Amino acid sequence: MLNYAWLIFVPPLIALLINIFLGRRLGRTISGWLGALAVGLSFVVAVGLYLSLYGLPVEERSVTVVLWDWITIGSFHPQIALLIDPLSVLMALVVTGVGFLIHIYSVQYMKEDDEHHDLDVRRYVRYFVYVNFFIVAMLILVLANNFVMLYMGWEGVGLASFLLISFWFYKPSARDAGKKAFLVNRIGDFGMALAIFLIFVSVGAVAGSLAYKDVFAAVAANPALLAGVAGAITLLLLLAATGKSAQIPLWVWLPDAMEGPTPVSALIHAATMVTAGVYLIVRTSPLFELAGNTLTLVAWIGGLTALMGATIALTKTDLKRILAYSTISQLGYMFLAVGSGAYAAGMFHLTTHALFKACLFLGAGSVMHAMHGELDINKMGGLRHKMRSTYWTFLIAAATLAGFPIVTGGFWSKDAVLIGAAANGEWILYVIGLFTALLTAIYSFKMVFVVFWGKPRDQRLYDQAHESPRLMTWPLWILAILSIVVSYLFLPEFLPKVGGLLAGWLEPAVAHGAEEAHITVGLEIALLVASIIVSLTGTYLAYRFYVQKPESVVSLRERLSFFHKLADNGYYFDAAYDWLRNGLWVIARWLSETFDAGIIDRAVNGIARGTGAVGAWTARLQTGLVGTYALTLFVGLVVVLGYFLLTALLK
Amino acid sequence: MTLPQVNFLAILPQIIVTATALLVLIVDAVDRRGAFSRRALSWLSLIGLLAAGAAVVWLVMQGGRQSFQDMAVSDGYSLAFSAIILLAAAMGVLLAKDTVDQFTRMPGAYYALLLLAVVGMMTMASATDLIVVFLSLEILSLALYVLVGFNLREPRSAEGSLKYFLLGAFASGFFLYGAALLYGASGSTNLAQIGQAMGAGGNEIYLYAGTALLVVGFGFKVAMVPFHMWTPDAYQGAPTPVTGFMSVATKTAVFAAFMRVFMQALPATQETWGWALAILAALTMTLGNLAALRQTSLKRMLAYSSIAHAGYALVGLVPGSAAGAVAVLFYMLSYALMNLGAFAVLVALERRGENDILRGDMHGLSDRRPGLAAAMAIFMFALAGIPPFVGFFAKFFIFSAAAEAGWIGLVVIGVINSVISAFYYLSVVVAMYFRSEKEAAPAAPVKARKSKDKAAPAPATPSAPVPQAPALATSQNAIRLAVVLAAIGTVAVGLYPAPWTAYITQAVQSVFGG
Questions:
Q1: ipTM score
Q2: Given A138, A233, A525, B42, which residue has the most CB atoms within 10 angstroms?
Q3: CB-CB under 8 Å, A182 with B403
Q4: Torsion, CA A570, CA A573, CA A574, CA A578, rounded to 10
Q5: What sections of A544-612 are H helices per DSSP?
Q6: Per-residue pLDDT tens over the stretch A165-223
Q7: With contacts defined as CB-CB under 8 Å, which chain B residues touch A640?
Q8: B387 vs A contacts (CB less than 8 Å)
Q9: Where along chain A do its domains lie?
Q10: Is residue B245 assigned to a domain?
Q11: Residue B469 domain-assigned (yes or no)
């Protein structure tokens, strides 16, 4: 089975090719189902990979499947090859599984969007081409066995994200959001490209390839290879990860990315692509283990992003924006976990988050359709009577996000993260994480209470509201149930035998953090109790603020107006970037105007046009333009010659 | 004294192409009116180029090194470059096949000049003597000066040609002077002998001054900043098939000679010219990309982009290592595929009598001509260096060769530049896919259009039925073929570069060792 791992790419590739060439003729229903079922088939392959890997002894659970030799330059010999190991298979399962459900949801959702956006069939088909392309790129990213292929997938998902954010391109806001996402991600990609070069220069020649296995083996055999550059490499990788995963300081693109269709927000900007940064750090953990300071930085970035994201989420009233900041905050938890060396906990939270956040976003999409595109939660209310399935699934997913004790997956994964931080001795980060958990519980239930409870705030919208068709509610139910069930696969180690499954499963794939959660059972139970208390307190506070005494929120907001303003404005990151960008733009314009003679040329052109076309160029020649060119050439010559002569004389 | 060895086999491809050029001229002269011969001329040129290509392949299979009087050789290195030049020339012929009537009434002269330029370029790639380098430089330049000015209806064409010619004359002078100084320093014009003499120590001032002048001479031809000023004007003015051909083939030929001269004759001053080229490469990349950002004319944008690409290729020359030479050679192959593809798309879109495409003209192309838009998107991503297209590996090898030799700072600048360049390449994709034709492009002022086209309805009228555009080139089959070939190459070589790199590595190592 493992040798046929490449089959996982085939269905979406075929589907997207068919849709490109025949989509218009196939019509909406067929092309949509084609895209969705293709991802379903990929999921089947992913399950097959999981089962065959599970059948192997633990120490053999890392298989390289060579597809073809990519290139040979001297001793350098990268291949197109897939690395099938527990980590990549877990990611593949998440990508194809959640992806499949979101595709099915999209078949209906994008059809309904026709009413709002007047899509013609070509755009509908193109949507499925783009999302299938995304699935392929994301699978390349997670299944690659070397850094070059990783980069290929990395760029591919960035491109897909860009295409889908600007999907409703006639909205200027969507175009701007796409541009912003692309811009910010280029900064991250720049880090990625440089990191790969540094790895190539320092290790690649010795290892003979850029495959993870070879690089890590070479480094393990001779850590001196990375002497001096380990810090630089890991910092650059971290830069790449913060870009893709929307962490401080590159988080600003994710909230705007909500301009894309809602299923895209669920798939790319919550469940899969944005977790690529976490995956990257886990994948390269053997390098990060050599640079302890970077790892600490990862943890701090994660902790602070979690806190700031949660505070911003509290202040927002746009349903999708709340979820976006919540995603940033939850990604922060994952960074906190991997930065503390608790890689398994990070991946655990990644998995549960993918399920419950996808469910929340899809639920938000369902609400959005019911409310005719309205996203302001202050215009909703009482919807639980009208949208039962959406309400219940949203409630379950929100409870999971809030870490509602014992029964939800989110509780256990968040607890694993916090225990990881504590085990690493980062008690300040632990407290930050715990406080963030409180905020998380508040804003999670705020969404539930404001949107679904109480009385309708906008009667007209409420009267028209209706439950979404089954094609949209079924994926919601599956995701909601999974986000609860999944927790029982990954319970902590001190619980009965099923516990610690994920940690054991990931064992062959990740570096062994020295401090992999070695704290006493007593302390662990104490921390667990703390988590329970915090989560319940948050839920109660949300109930008090948003159900019992809504007026108390207003007075609280006034008392904390400074912090409220700070958070509501996203801590002024956007403003700072605008300021920076304007500055850079001025410099770039100055440079290019000085440099581009064509602009001078154009000015002259305008004057000369009056004198008739034939005379124009002779006239221009006499304005001395060629003279300017010749002068530049001559100055260049003098400088170059001067440099060479000076070197000769100084020798 | 041994008698020099005369071996016509060594210049077999050049002989074939020269003969074809003469044949084209004769056919054209004999049959002045015939519509038949007009079409036949392009076929004749293509057949000649294919025959030369076959000769190249045959010589490759012969292996070894054939030498023509120690002046020019045919070795793996020269043959690899020749193959790229022939590829570019074939594309130049294909692109002109259906459009040549739009810019000239002398198709015979067009094809003949193009073929003669190819002769000069291939000779340049195989030159092992400074005299031959200079001669071939002049052969190709003279042909190109005329080709740039070939569009008599377009004032910009003549203007670009004149600027190119005037400044090119300067640059040739510098080159010749540099060659003379090197002769003075070493007592020979043969590259290998210069290398030996300088290794043993010669007149240092002559050597360094000569090197500097050669940098300027070569730098001018590859459009290196600050010797690039002619490029945007010449590229924008020239008929588009010429622009595509010269942007690729000239660079390929000059880089071949640039590397052979500097690595074989001047290793003694490597440290000095390495630094000079590094600084110039950084300037070339940065300024090329920054200027490209603000262009609305796609030809002018691609002109600045080609300046930037010359900068990337220079990075590969900086370390003076075999790995760098391999990277440059591969870069030229990639650049030929993706850049000629982009120009082929422009030719396909040009309306009769026009010589330029604005970014606004691309709006909604994905709806009007999906295949063409998809191909253009591939070329743009490849030029931006996004995997899996061929441009990615091209940049990867260049940068890794430089990084291996310790030029980390230069690599950082290069990577930053490729980040910048993504913006303008992507803006084309955005225009094709995310703008509808109806949107009267505010980003595309009419400025670059000639006054006679001002009445052209394209950007001005927002009325519902899109006005029928002026006729496109009558038959587009040849252009389509060119687009498809380039697209296939861009994707296939990117996905499976192994055989190419294997051959290139072998070719370079047979000359430079390592």
A1: 0.83
A2: A138
A3: no
A4: 160
A5: 550-559, 561-568, 573-595, 597-609
A6: 888 877 788 888 888 888 788 888 888 888 888 888 888 777 777 888 888 888 888 87
A7: 212, 215-216, 276, 280
A8: 148, 151-152, 155-156
A9: 355-556, 570-618, 621-651
A10: yes
A11: no
